[in-house]
Design brief:
heterodimer; A: mainly alpha; 52% helix; B: 29 helices; disordered N terminus; disordered C terminus
């Protein structure tokens, strides 16, 4: 534990981070080590090239998250979304929701879809996501049909785009807390 | 399951069941009894003619003193067909019973089928005993070699892989640790009880008790299937209990052999225990390995079957059964071999075989397993009556109570441990269902029956206790579990399918999670799954899937199938209204006004389209295909299209007229009021989903994924009329309209003759593959090609 504490002190704002995300000190340290390992050129922050270096990520839509420069707190915050939901943590009614609450998880995914950050997933954005996922094996018109169908299903106010509420509604049957959790990050 | 030993075959004489025939035709009894030796003198001329004439009738030439016998016009020779006749009689009886149950209106909803069948067996057994013949006993050979494999194969082939692998840890815990706990607890307590003075049981030593505990502690897959299938419980619980019942076979095998071997020696040393553990690993992993090898062989064989489609189903059955038998040769776990075989071979088989073979396999498996299950329960009833009864109140009651207690304690303790590792915890309700669902069945009985009477003089007492436990679990627990499930409001199986949104987003999430795991540098669940899928795609599929289909995504075959199905549904619904996707927003979606005001009706595309989209997503994201959720043999949908053909043609004509009308409408296409689901439509929603679907208006529109195979390029905009007509499946450009959507074998040749362009030729061939079944006669193709 001694080493953890000393490393912990090296990490700026560790205490705030832990508070905000709910990670334990050991986790923060582990993530910090990983962060440093990814940061090949020792720049102090992560840029898209570092993520490109992880070859398994080649076909992965997560890449777009890493379009901008990431410092350590943002890195941790992103990963915090994937923590399993902790039912035992007392919920302080005044504090903002935990980062790994269901609604925040959904918001995270929504932001991945919504690249131009206008609060809606338009048909184009959806198409883009589908295109990355389906890897050229499907023709363009099929993609378009799928996109059309998806929007049709979810789009309640007929504006040809999916807002966050519609998105949330369409996912109400899916067990997000389970699906979007990595046990490792508990 | 352990190999039988020869002396135990005594009960296998089928001849004793001959008396069942007597029930049908009593007057046959006497000739059977009077069957005499073959070499009776000719010319005996008896009236009943029970004697077999070995010499030709006119062979009286040797003995001039005998008169020439008349040529027998009609003779009676039961002995020659006796064995097969009896077997078939039993099977027929079992099936008729099954039919009978479902005809009685309320019965099948109150009492599970298994109970009824056991009762029938009991009645039959008593009847046979009254007549004086020794009724057929459920011999272990019969059970383990003929009756059990179909059920297990059915379960293994249609095992839902995703929930199974997600919960594998939990299932293994229950199967291995739970069974061990159960056997030792039951064995120990019984031993303690036996030692008590006054019960007259002191001759039952520790090892037989432990053996008994091992036999009785295993949850039985047959019983679980029979009961759980009817209560439609949610997927998680179903797979937990069912998976446990399948996987505990290895444990049971090892324990059984271990205790049996050493029971007469009298003691078990540490070395034996250690060897037992090693044996367990060997038995389970070996069984899985054997099964996997046979599965790969089967998949490889199916790669070459494109010319002889008719024997494809055979390979599934033969290879699987051989896997089972091969595992039995080495005393490995046959059940695990069978399951591994089914699981391994399924994805590749499904890619290689024709749709008809696929249907055949599905139905055949279901049929076989259904018959087996029925027979098992009936025989169980019959055997109960047949055996010698050494009823011992103490032993039996203690057994029943201890079984329940052990199960409950085991589940509670294990869940407590498991919940530390699970993300989705098991609630108390879940635990109750798991504990309550631990039914014992015929496997326990057969194992008990196998015991050697010399080494185990108390075998009959054991048997009676086993039977009592089985009856108790099947009757009491089986009957009450349904009302309890309702009472406790346990989550039932989800009736509705997932929407496209859910599908896409879930797949997206999986990718996302894999990425996050990579970012964290943590090799978790998703990472390995992803790796396995990539490995599969890169190497294994190339070997095992025929020809060009290894490279192209499996999606295309599905896609065509879905398109066809959807095209038929189009015809059904009488709506040719389609907004082709190539026309982006001119005919915008706002024009589609649902006619039902109160609730928002999603402008529906047909189920087929949904299904297809789902499939596209799923297969392309390298997931295991879950093509069949026909997990439940009770809800297989009856084969549609038995009589829908003429309706199709008429509707098709209607559609043509409708389209002509539409052509005159300019740009605003309104959706006609969706007709209520005709039975044909409902029946058209077959194959993948056995659940009855709630009727949704089948107005279709929008995303028109072009069905037109002849010109795969999407038409850049044509007139609305042409677009509207497009979706109809046109295999050839010729007179398809009148023929409707039926693909007759003759039409298979046409595309070959005049391919419009090489692309369409390929498309045709893919299409043909879907349909290809150079079946017996062209006239057989009287129903559309739907899988």
């Amino acid at each position: 534990m001694g080493s953890t504490n000393s490393t912990l002190s090296k990490i700026p704002n560790a205490g705030d981070l832990m508070q905000e995300t709910g990670f334990s000190p050991a986790h923060i340290v582990r993530l910090y080590d990983r962060y440093k390992a990814l940061d090949k050129d020792k720049k102090g922050h992560l840029c898209p090239q570092d993520f490109g270096a992880i070859k398994e990520l080649a076909m992965n839509p997560i890449k777009q998250v890493c379009q901008e420069v990431l410092d350590f707190p943002s890195f941790v915050r992103i990963l915090a979304h994937f923590r399993p939901v902790d039912k035992n943590r007392p919920k302080d009614p005044n504090s903002p929701e935990h980062i790994n609450s269901r609604s925040n998880k959904l918001k995270f995914i929504f932001q991945l879809y919504d690249q131009d950050k206008d609060g809606k997933i338009s048909r184009q954005e959806l198409l883009q996501v589908l295109r990355t996922m389906l890897e050229k094996q499907v023709t363009e018109e099929q993609l378009e049909s799928i996109a059309d169908r998806t929007i049709q299903e979810a789009d309640l106010d007929r504006d040809d785009a999916i807002s966050f509420d519609e998105f949330r509604k369409s996912m109400e049957k899916v067990n997000i807390e389970h699906k979007m959790s990595i046990r490792f990050l508990r | 399951m352990p190999l039988f030993r020869a002396p135990a075959l005594a009960g296998c004489r089928v001849r004793s069941g001959a008396i069942a025939a007597a029930l049908l035709a009593g007057f046959f009894l006497m000739p059977l009894g009077a069957a005499s030796s073959p070499d009776m003198p000719i010319g005996h001329g008896d009236g009943e003619g029970a004697h077999r004439d070995h010499a030709p009738a006119h062979g009286g030439t040797n003995q001039s003193t005998h008169t020439k016998k008349a040529f027998p016009v009609l003779s009676f020779d039961y002995k020659a067909v006796e064995n097969p006749f009896l077997i078939l009689l039993w099977i027929l009886l079992a099936s008729l019973m099954k039919l009978g149950f479902h005809l009685i209106p309320r019965l099948s909803s109150i009492v599970p089928e298994s109970c009824l069948l056991i009762v029938v067996g009991l009645l039959l057994g008593m009847l046979l005993k009254l007549i004086g013949q020794n009724p057929l006993l459920l011999s272990s050979r019969l059970f383990f070699f003929y009756l059990l494999p179909p059920i297990i194969l059915d379960a293994g082939y249609f095992l839902p892989i995703r929930p199974f692998s997600e919960n594998l840890g939990t299932i293994l815990m229950f199967a291995v640790v739970g069974t061990l706990w159960n056997s030792f607890f039951i064995g120990g307590v019984l031993y303690g009880v036996c030692q008590i003075e006054g019960t007259n049981l002191s001759r039952v030593t520790l090892l037989p008790c432990l053996l008994f505990g091992a036999i009785i502690s295993a949850v039985d897959p047959v019983a679980v299937l029979a009961v759980f299938e009817e209560i439609h419980i949610n997927e998680l619980l179903h797979i937990l209990v069912f998976g446990e019942s399948l996987l505990n076979d290895a444990v049971t095998v090892v324990l059984y052999h271990l205790f049996e071997e050493y029971a007469h020696v009298g003691q078990v040393t540490f070395i034996d225990v250690f060897l037992g553990i090693v044996c367990f690993l060997v038995v389970s992993l070996g069984g899985i390995l054997v099964g996997a090898i046979y599965g790969l062989l089967a998949a490889f064989t199916s790669r070459f079957t494109s010319h002889i489609r008719v024997i494809e189903p055979l390979f599934v059955f033969v290879y699987s059964y051989m896997a089972y038998l091969s595992a039995e040769v080495f005393h490995l776990s046959g059940i695990m071999a069978l399951i591994a075989c089914g699981v391994v071979m399924r994805p590749y088989m499904e890619a290689n075989i024709s749709h008809k073979s696929h249907t055949t396999i599905k139905y055949f498996l279901k049929m076989l397993s259904s018959v087996s299950e029925t027979l098992i329960f009936i025989f169980l009833g019959v055997s109960t009556v047949a055996g010698n009864h050494k009823w011992n109140w103490t032993f039996v009651t203690v057994t029943v109570i201890v079984c329940m207690v052990a199960r409950v304690l085991g589940v509670i303790f294990l869940t407590y441990v498991i919940n530390k590792f699970r993300i989705v915890k098991l609630t108390t309700k879940d635990q109750f269902i798991i504990a309550y669902g631990g039914l014992r069945g015929a496997i326990a009985f057969s194992l008990g029956y196998l015991l050697n009477t010399d080494h185990f003089p108390m075998r009959d007492m054991f048997l009676i206790a086993i039977i009592t436990v089985i009856f108790f679990t099947v009757f009491v627990q089986g009957m009450t579990i349904r009302p309890l499930v309702d009472l406790l409001a346990v989550k039932k199986k989800q009736e509705t399918k997932r929407s496209i949104n859910e599908e896409i987003h879930t797949q997206f999430l999986d990718h996302l999670l894999t990425g996050i795991e990579d970012v964290c540098g943590h090799y978790g669940h998703h990472h390995w799954k992803d790796k396995l899928n990539r490995f599969n795609k890169k190497y294994v599929k190339k070997c095992l899937i025929a020809g060009d289909r290894a490279k192209e995504p499996q999606l295309i075959a599905f896609y065509h199938k879905m398109e066809m199905k959807q095209a038929i549904e189009l015809v059904e619904s009488g709506g040719g209204v389609k907004l082709p996707s190539a026309m982006p927003s001119t005919v915008s979606m706002q024009n589609i006004q649902p006619k039902k005001p109160p609730e928002r009706v999603l402008p529906q595309i047909s189920k087929g389209r949904e299904e297809e989209i789902r499939k596209i997503l799923r297969t392309n994201l390298q997931r295991t295909r879950q093509r069949l959720q026909s997990y439940n043999r009770h809800t297989l949908i009856a084969d549609p299209y038995e009589d829908g053909f003429t309706e199709l043609i008429m509707k098709r004509k209607k559609v043509i007229e409708l389209e002509k009308k539409l052509k005159q409408m300019n740009n605003y296409l309104t959706v006609p009021a969706p007709p209520p689901d005709s039975p044909t439509i409902t029946r058209a929603r077959l194959s993948s989903d056995p659940q009855p679907w709630s009727a949704k208006p089948s107005a279709d529109n929008v995303p028109a994924i072009k069905v037109d195979l002849a010109s795969p390029q999407s038409p850049e905009s044509g007139s609305p009329g042409r677009e509207a007509r497009k979706p109809v499946l046109q295999v050839t450009r010729e007179t398809e309209e009148e023929e409707g959507l039926v693909m007759r074998p003759s039409s298979q040749e046409k595309p070959r003759k005049g391919p419009e362009d090489p692309e369409s030729e390929k498309e045709q061939q893919r299409l043909l593959r879907c349909l290809s079944d150079p079946g017996p006669a062209a006239s057989e193709e009287d129903e559309p090609f739907l899988p």
